[in-house]
From TrEMBL:
It comes from the Bacteria. The lineage of its organism: Bacteria, Pseudomonadati, Planctomycetota, Planctomycetia, Isosphaerales. It comes from Paludisphaera mucosa. InterPro entries: Alkaline_phosphatase_core_sf (IPR017850), DUF1501 (IPR010869). This is DUF1501 domain-containing protein.
Length: 466
C-alpha cells in the first residue's frame, strides 16, 4: 500500500499476510507471485533442445561490476612490452601450461576444475550497455551512453528461465545479492525481466550477509506472531474471503494461490532457512572468508541447495572493479584476494556436497581493461589505471558439465584483440541456457505479443568437451 492510504476495517487482516521483499521497482513477494500467476501458463520453449546432454540444475554467476582486468588475472602477458604486462607475476596452476596471477593462488590450485574463456568480445565500452549485453545476451534496445534500465530491455537469465519454466512451488527462479547495481539516478540494466514484465523479475537482496545479525526482514514473522498464530490468521482470512469476495469461474479467490505461496515461503523454511547463516558450520564460513564476497558466495550455495535455479552474486558494489586508478593496488589488496578465497571455497564446497556437477559456476565482468596502462578509451585514467576494454576479455567456468583444466580461445600477444574466433555475449548466454537444458532458440513474447528469440548465440561447445 502507498503511504497515506486509508484502510477499511475488513482489509487490515489481509495485510498481515503480505510477506513482501524488495525487487525491481519495489515489487513485493505477493505482487511478484500475483503477477507471475497472470503469466500464460502455456508458455513453453519451442520444443527443440540443444545438442549434447545438459547437466546443470542451477547456475551461480559471480559478477564483477566494472570489469576485471584480464591481463592482470587469467590472461597475463609476461612477454608483452613494459606498460602493458603490468606489475603482477604469473604463477603456474595445477594444469600444465595454464598460468594465473600471483594473487589468485587458490584458484590456480583448482585449475583442473576451471575452464578459462579468453576470447569474449563485444562492442560496448559503457558500463550500462555492456552490463545489459553480458547479463542478457543481447544488445540493449536503443542503446546510448548510460542508458538506464527500462521495460524495453531484454530479460536477465533468471527471468528468461522463469518465463519458460514458470514455478508453482513459491521458490523464486532467480535471486540477486547482496548489492543492487545502481549509482545515483542510474539503474543498471540486465537485473530484471525487461519486456517480460515484473511478474518475472528475480528477487533482489540488498543486504551484506557478512554483517552481524544478517536477516532478510521480509522472511521474518511479524512481531508478535508465531507460525501457529499466522496459520490461524490464514484460516480466518479464508473465512473472510469466502463471505466477501465475488465468486470467480473457478469458485475461489483468485489471489489465494499467491497467498499460499507466500505462506509457504514464510513457514516451510525451504528458502527462508537458506538465509540463516548462523546454522552454517563456522569453519565453513571461515573458509569462504568473513567478508561480503565470501559470505555472499556461501549464501549462493545455500540458495542452490534450497532449489533456486539461478543466483547472481555481485562481487562488490556497482563498478567496484572499475580500476581507472590504482589498478594494481586495488586488485592486490581489495579485489582479487577475497574473490580467490570465496570462489575457491565455493568450488570445494559444491564438490564435497556432490553439487558441482549439477551447478554451473561462472565468474565474469561486463568487459576487460585496456592493454596499455594509463591509456584512455574516453575516460580519465591515472598512470597506474586501466580503462574499459571490450574488444577481448575473459571469464571462468566450472561445474555443470563443463570440462575443466582447459583454455578456450585466445587473445593476441598484448591482450588487445581475439587471436581466435571471438565469443559474443549471445554465445555466453546460449552457454548458460544450454547448461540448464533450455534451447537458446526458444521463443519469448513481448508486451505486444511479438515473438522474440531467447538468444541469438550458440553455446561455447569446447566448454562441454565438444
Amino acid at each position: 500500500m502507498t503511504a497515506g492510504h486509508t484502510h477499511t476495517r475488513g482489509f487490515v487482516r489481509r495485510e498481515v499476510l503480505q510477506v513482501g521483499f524488495s525487487g525491481f521497482l519495489g515489487m513485493s513477494l505477493p505482487q511478484v507471485l500475483s503477477a507471475r500467476a497472470l503469466a500464460d501458463p502455456t508458455a513453453k520453449a519451442t520444443g527443440r533442445r540443444t545438442a549434447g546432454a545438459p547437466r546443470a540444475k542451477s547456475i551461480i554467476i559471480a559478477f564483477m561490476s566494472g570489469g576485471l582486468s584480464h591481463i592482470d588475472s587469467v590472461d597475463m602477458k609476461p612477454d608483452a612490452p613494459d606498460g602493458i604486462r603490468g606489475e603482477f607475476k604469473p604463477i603456474d596452476t595445477a594444469v600444465a601450461g595454464i598460468q594465473f596471477c600471483e594473487h589468485m593462488p587458490l584458484l590456480a590450485q583448482r585449475a583442473g576444475d576451471l575452464a578459462v574463456v579468453r576470447s569474449l568480445s563485444h562492442k560496448y565500452t559503457n558500463h550500462l550497455n555492456a552490463t545489459h549485453e553480458l547479463l542478457t545476451g543481447h544488445s540493449q534496445p536503443g542503446a546510448f551512453f548510460d542508458k538506464i534500465a527500462s521495460r524495453d530491455d531484454y530479460p536477465c537469465y533468471a527471468s528468461g528461465l522463469d518465463y519458460l519454466r514458470p514455478r508453482t512451488d513459491g521458490v523464486p527462479t532467480g535471486v540477486m545479492l547482496p548489492t543492487y547495481l545502481m549509482e545515483g539516478p542510474l539503474t543498471w540494466p540486465g537485473q530484471h525481466a525487461g519486456f517480460l514484465g515484473p511478474r518475472h523479475d528475480p528477487w533482489q537482496i540488498r543486504q551484506d550477509p557478512n554483517k552481524p545479525g544478517f536477516q532478510v526482514e521480509s522472511l521474518a514473522l511479524p512481531v508478535g506472531f508465531s507460525v501457529e498464530r499466522l496459520g490461524r490468521r490464514q484460516a480466518l482470512l479464508d473465512q473472510v474471503n469466502a463471505g466477501m469476495l465475488p465468486q470467480t469461474d473457478l469458485g475461489r479467490d483468485p489471489m489465494s494461490d499467491q497467498r499460499a505461496r507466500a505462506m509457504s515461503l514464510l513457514t516451510s523454511g525451504r528458502v527462508s532457512g537458506a538465509f540463516d547463516l548462523d546454522k552454517e558450520d563456522p569453519a565453513v564460513r571461515d573458509r569462504y572468508g568473513r567478508h561480503m564476497f565470501g559470505q555472499s558466495l556461501l549464501l549462493a550455495r545455500r540458495l542452490v541447495e534450497a532449489g533456486v535455479p539461478i543466483v547472481q552474486v555481485n562481487l562488490g558494489r556497482v563498478q567496484q572493479w572499475d580500476t581507472h586508478s590504482a589498478n594494481f593496488k586495488n586488485l592486490k589488496n581489495n579485489l582479487l584476494p577475497p574473490t580467490d578465497r570465496g570462489m575457491s571455497a565455493l568450488l570445494d564446497d559444491l564438490k564435497a556436497r556432490g553439487l558441482l556437477d549439477e551447478t554451473l559456476v561462472v565468474l565474469a565482468g561486463e568487459f576487460g581493461r585496456t592493454p596499455r596502462i594509463g591509456s584512455s578509451t574516453g575516460n580519465n585514467n591515472t598512470a597506474d589505471g586501466r580503462d574499459h576494454w571490450s574488444k577481448v576479455f575473459s571469464a571462468l567456468f566450472a561445474g555443470g558439465g563443463v570440462r575443466g583444466g582447459q583454455v578456450v580461445g585466445a587473445s593476441d600477444r598484448i591482450g588487445a584483440y581475439p587471436a581466435s574466433p571471438p565469443y559474443s555475449p549471445g554465445d555466453f548466454a546460449a552457454t548458460l541456457y544450454h547448461a540448464l537444458g533450455v534451447d537458446p532458440a526458444s521463443e519469448l513474447r513481448d508486451r505486444l505479443d511479438r515473438p522474440i528469440r531467447l538468444c541469438d548465440g550458440s553455446p561455447i561447445a569446447p566448454l562441454f568437451g565438444t
